[in-house]
Amino acid sequence: MTDVADSPARPARPARRGFGRRSPDDGPRASFRQLLPYLLEHRRVLVWVIVLSVLGAAASLGQPLLVNQVISRVQHGSTLGSIVWALVALVVIAGLISGYQHYLLQRTGEGVVLSSRRRLVARMLNLPIAQFDQRRTGDLVSRVGADTTALRAVLTQGLIDAVGGVLTFIGALIGMAIIDPVLLGLTVLVIGLSVVVVVALSSRIRVASRRAQEKVGDLTAAVERAISSVRTIRAAGATAHEVAAVDIDAEGAWEMGIQVARVSALVVPVAGIALQVSFLVVLGVGGYRVAAGDISVASLVTFIIFLFMLVMPLGNAFGAITSVNSALGALGRIEEIIALPGEDERDSRTASLADQRTDAPAIAFDNVTFAYPVSPQVSARVADLDAGAPTTNGEPALVLRNVSFEVPRGKRVALVGPSGAGKSTSLALIERFYDPTAGTIRLGGIDIAALPRDELRAQLGYVEQDAPALAGSLRDNLRLAAPDATDDACRAVLAAVNLGEVLGRSPLGLDAPVGEDGVMLSGGERQRLAIARALLAAPPILLLDESTSSLDGRNEQLMREAIDAVAEHRTLIVIAHRLSTVVDSDQIVVLDHGEVVGIGTHSELVATVPLYRELAKHQLLV
Ligand SMILES: Nc1ncnc2c1ncn2[C@@H]1O[C@H](COP(=O)(O)OP(=O)(O)OP(=O)(O)O)[C@@H](O)[C@H]1O
Q1: Which atom of ligand 1 is found nearest the CA of 594?
Q2: Rounded Cα distance, 516 and 559, in Å
Q3: Where is each ABC transmembrane type-1 domain found (predicted)?
Q4: Distances from the Cα of 192 to the Cαs of 165, 313, 459, 613, in angstroms?
Q5: Quick one: which atom of ligand 1 is closest to the CA of 421?
Q6: What spacing in Å lies between the alpha carbon of 415 and ligand 1's midpoint?
Q7: How far is the CA of 399 from the centre of ligand 1 (A)?
Q8: Is any ligand 1 atom within 6 A of the Cβ of residue 131?
Q9: Rounded-to-integer distance, Cα 96 and Cα 86, Å
Q10: Which CATH class is domain 32-343?
Q11: Comparing 32-343 with 466-538, is the CATH topology the same?
Q12: Which of 134, 369, 372, when mutated, tests ligand 1's pocket best, judged by the most ligand atoms within 8 Å of its CB?
């Protein structure tokens, strides 16, 4: 019943190999191998880029040979003829090829960013709910925005002319070997040293740039927190405090950026120094060899041009090291999420709704026990503190204990109990946002763990506690679960939950925006809009987690009427914070500290369950 990622007993499954074993300092890492699927999607363009690279390299390598000819002809007093034109043509062709190739790689880079965003968002929105409990929203947002953008650099800077660069490098090496192996030996010695230095520095760049990206994630999370709670922060007079908190994260990102800059500052001049030193060595030793008659002036000039051609791609590669390493760091953060199992991947799909029994209750809890999964980070911190909460003896604290109750078809059942008793958790388990640690929940007699989640959820309408309205129009909100609903159906359902008046408020009607998180609606209106949304999909079972915010008399009346409208012809499980909403329920289940302490009608419970009597007394119902 309990599946792997949600299991409190077992920590969330470590991601695929390469992400699983790492020290806290050692964030997600990616290799070029993981980049391959993204590149292979664009293999046609990349093959074309390679062909252009080969042509470009040939056009470049042809230039020193022609220069050699020009010098020899000038030395021997012969006419230059078409050679100069051929040289000009080669330079122009090499330039055109390089421009077109650059465009193709930029385009492919954008394509890689697009497909990484698609894959990441598709996986992210399909992760088990526990992952969202344990991760910071801003950090996830930053992965979709900033990290995917960093991937572009692999193509636009890393792979730019990589093949052409290698060919030019090899061609230049061969040309130099033919002209003068001694000079080549000296050149290779100097350049080899520069490569050793850069390779040694590149791992430091990788670590620094990955940390820089993590810091950007922290920064986005801090900004997201501040913006999403802006009213509370403003009202608490805590704006300056929050600005300072965001500032600390911004500074952290800046510091890491500076670290990257410091290490890359060491790398960038290496190619230049290598070129200068080898140029001076070649000029000195080459000049001596020309004087000694070992090589001609034309050969020395050609050798020097080849030297530039050898060092140029090397310089490009050194220059790309920072951006490629940061792209690989970003890819690590993207793949860390993509490697997590999606919630639907763990569906057993061994049963179908057709197996429902008509004589079975709509929903039945059978000895359900549950503890929320504890994130590995929290576990580690608790272990460090050697403290009990939120776990006991290393085990997560139980939120539900052996809970059993039945909800007959077509009946209205209320869950009541003090705050933290486990009411909302029970609805979350019916929705399979989490799976019970022990026990079974059945829908029409079928263990819901055996049903595909989408089939199960199609049977359920769920109205969260203080349900948020989604930014967008009234119509967008209503059609979330019923995309084909007509405008007439939308209007009818709004009227059913007493929201007809909201429609008349704006000339835009159903197109009227509700604001970010529905700020343009009152708390009661948001809750009723959420009920309308659930109703429109016409599910046979409705789970309603009543708003905790106190509603005035009129709103409460409107809400009761809305619930009555909802209850018709369907099974309703309602979490009531105001007993007045549920006194006429068919059955009331009283929860306390995760245990069922009473089941019955209002009058039965007032007579037999002290906790319920107490609750009713507080709410002036007895
Ligand atoms: N996502 C979560 N991760 C960890 N613990 C949680 C999570 N959600 C709720 N809890 C804990 O589970 C317990 C039960 O919470 P639940 O929301 O089910 O209570 P409730 O009866 O609905 O309370 P209320 O009436 O205040 O809404 C609480 O102690 C709460 O702190």
Answers
A1: 14
A2: 23
A3: 47-326
A4: 17, 14, 68, 85
A5: 21
A6: 14
A7: 8
A8: no
A9: 15
A10: mainly alpha
A11: no
A12: 372
Is 393 near ligand 1, meaning CB less than 6 Å away?
Answer: no
- Is the predicted pLDDT of residue 161 greater than 80, yes or no? no
In terms of Cβ atoms closer than 10 Å to its own Cβ (0-12, 13-18, 19+), residue 613 is middle
Structure letter (DSSP) for residue 351: -
Q: Is 546 a catalytic residue?
A: yes
Residue nearest to atom 26 of ligand 1 (CA): 419
Determine which of 318-327, 448-457, 595-604 has the lowest per-residue pLDDT on average: 318-327
Report CA(406)–ligand 1 centroid distance (Å): 21
Catalytic pick among 546, 556, 568, 604:
546
Question: What's the gap in Å between 424 CA and the centre of ligand 1?
Answer: 7
For tokens 């059942």, the residue is 413
Query: Is the shortest distance between the CB of 372 and ligand 1 below 6 Å?
Result: yes
SS3 of 414, please?
strand
Determine the 3-state secondary structure of 594 from DSSP: coil
> What are the tens digits of pLDDT across the range 597-622?
999 999 999 999 999 998 888 876 55
**Residue of the nearest CA to atom 31 in ligand 1?**
420
**Proportion of the chain above pLDDT 70, given as a percent:** 89
pLDDT tens digits, 166-222: 878 888 899 899 988 988 998 899 888 888 888 888 878 878 888 888 888 899 889
Evaluate: CB of 133 within 6 angstroms of ligand 1: yes
Domain boundaries, the chain: 32-343, 466-538
User: Per-residue confidence at 24, pLDDT binned at 50, 70, 90?
Assistant: very low
Minimal CA–CA distance to 184: which of 276, 286, 271, 292? 286
Amino acid at 620: L
Q: Which helix (H) or strand (E) holds 69?
A: helix 43-76
Residue nearest to atom 29 of ligand 1 (CA): 420
What confidence tens digit (pLDDT) does each residue in 126-143 have? Answer: 999 999 998 888 889 989
Distance from C-alpha of 587 to C-alpha of 415, rounded to nearest angstrom: 9
Closest C-alpha residue for ligand 1 atom 19 = 420
Q: Is the CB of 418 under 6 A from ligand 1?
A: no
Measured in Å, residue 442 CA sits from the centre of ligand 1 at 22
How do residues 91-129 score in pLDDT, each as one tens digit?
A: 888 889 888 988 888 888 899 999 999 999 999 999 999
Q: 610: Cβ below 6 Å to ligand 1?
A: no
Ligand 1 centroid–CA 12 distance in Å is 20
Looking at residue 2, its pLDDT comes to 38
Rg of the chain, C-alpha, whole Å = 34
Confidence check: pLDDT of 489 > 70: yes
Nearest-10 crossing angle of helices 523-536, 553-567: 10
CATH superfamily, with its number, for domain 466-538: P-loop containing nucleotide triphosphate hydrolases (3.40.50.300)
Residue among 601, 214, 148, 204 nearest 411 (CA): 601
Give the orientation angle of helix 43-76 with respect to helix 297-338, to 10 degrees: 170
Q: What is the CA(423)–ligand 1 centre distance, in A?
A: 8
Q: Provide, rounded to the nearest whole percent, the portion of the chain with pLDDT above 90.
A: 26
Asked casually if ipTM beats, i.e. exceeds, 0.90, the reply is: yes
How confident is the model over 517-556, as pLDDT tens digits? 777 888 778 888 888 888 888 889 999 887 655 456 666 6
In DSSP notation, 257-309 reads HHHHHHHHHHHHHHHHHHHHHHHHHHHHHHHHHHHTTSS-HHHHHHHHHHHHH
**pTM confidence score:** 0.75
